[in-house]
Amino acid sequence: MYLKVFRDDIIEGLQKSAAIIPAKTGAAVLRTIWLKVENDTLRIMSTDSNLEFCGWYNAEIIEEGLVGVQGRSFYDLIRKLPPGQITLKADQEGQFLAISQNSRKYKLPMNEVSWFTDFSEFPEENSVFWSGDFLQDLIDRTAYCISEEDTMEAIACMNITPSKTTEHIETCGLNGHQFAMTRFLQDDLRSLLPEGGVLIQRKFIAELKKWLTADEIELNIDNKRLFFRTADKKELFSLPLSFYQYPDYNAFLTKIREDGISQLTVDRQDMADTLERIMIFNTDNNRCTYLKFGGSELTLYSQGQDVGTASESLEVNFAGNLEKIAFPTRHLIEILNHFQSEKVTFKLTGAEGPCGIIGADDSEYQVIIMPMKIVEETYYSEEDSK
Q1: Residue 346 has what pLDDT?
Q2: CB within 8 A of 341, min separation 6: which ones?
Q3: 51 in helix, strand or coil?
Q4: Would you state the pLDDT for residue 60?
């Protein structure tokens, strides 16, 4: 292999390639960046055995070939070189890759070419074009609710599935105490999805988000993998699908739509700011904020024997019979920050039942949070707060 290429033409691809390989652990083959020169193009590839990245870049090709080098070292070296043309040349014995730029000369040991296995090819038939920034937004609005425990199987994944009741696609995140769902219309993608949808493991979603940009992407699915390709076909990122059984979330969605539940509407930003102050008074043993309902006034408070007490009131619209409920403060703040609406509505099924949160300007987005069991100490009283 022998070629000349401009540093700035490949640095972004090398960064994406290096991002998915293990830094120090794992087999040497998984820490490899592969450089394949053919058809007047330089192809950069890497994998961690699950994720795969491929990029195609213009170069001045002198001799075709395939080379594997220690990925982090190669990326760090190219990253620290100044802009300009770089020469890459493999020696005849297949021992070293020579890297030169003007008077700068380096050699990196090459890995065995026999280690290389073919990367997955993008399925060309029935692919769908989609907005990269829209997919990023879907990830932002659901991924924070996905279980962080890999052993939780299905709920450690983001679920993208055709709705059973409408023409929408539903993107969901679920863990033991929160659920987030965004619905959207995209007929081409809906026809591409299998009936049961697709599951993407949380650990892969973070890397997918790093790869995505706001630009348009091309998407396709085969029976094992989900593929994303830039619209200009210069980069390909793919990940394995999971095949667990995702829980039926329609049962608790139905519950928050029932008649007779309590309903609270509040200014989203005012509530988020109040919770930020109250969280100062949370402790490891008491991580919640109590909400006490009183007509058009909502009292939020927290108490801790070592940190003192906090109580604030907000003007709200409230209808129902619920007197008091408690939520994890940090989780409630995080949820509110994922809404765009000026006001949000809480649909409260009971002090220990699921609570749905919606907003008028977030019409296809909803979150469900489970309250905490109320266990209060006696060192807080309404009289103390006056």
Answers
A1: 98
A2: 268, 359, 360, 361, 362
A3: coil
A4: 95
The SS3 call for residue 184 is strand
DSSP 318: E
- Helix (H/G/I), strand (E/B), else coil: 312: strand
* Residue pLDDT, tens place only, 363-375: 899 999 999 987 6
- Indicate if 361 and 285 belong to the same structural domain: yes
Dist. CA 339–CA 377, nearest whole Å: 33
Mean pLDDT across 201-224: 94
For residue 274 the two structure tokens come to: 């109040």
Helix intervals (H) in 43-200: 71-80, 132-142, 187-192
Split into its structural domains, the chain has a count of 3
Q: Is residue 241 within 8 Å of residue 228, measured between CB atoms? A: no
pLDDT tens, position by position, 101-158: 999 999 999 999 999 999 999 999 999 999 999 999 999 999 999 999 888 899 999 9
Whether residue 380 lies inside any domain: the answer is no
Q: How far from chain centre, in Å, is Cα 153? A: 16
Give 70-95 pLDDT, tens digit per residue.
999 999 999 999 999 999 999 988 89
Are 95 and 203 part of one and the same domain?
A: no
| 285: CB partners within 8 A, 6+ apart | 304
Contact 313, 266 (CB under 8 A): no
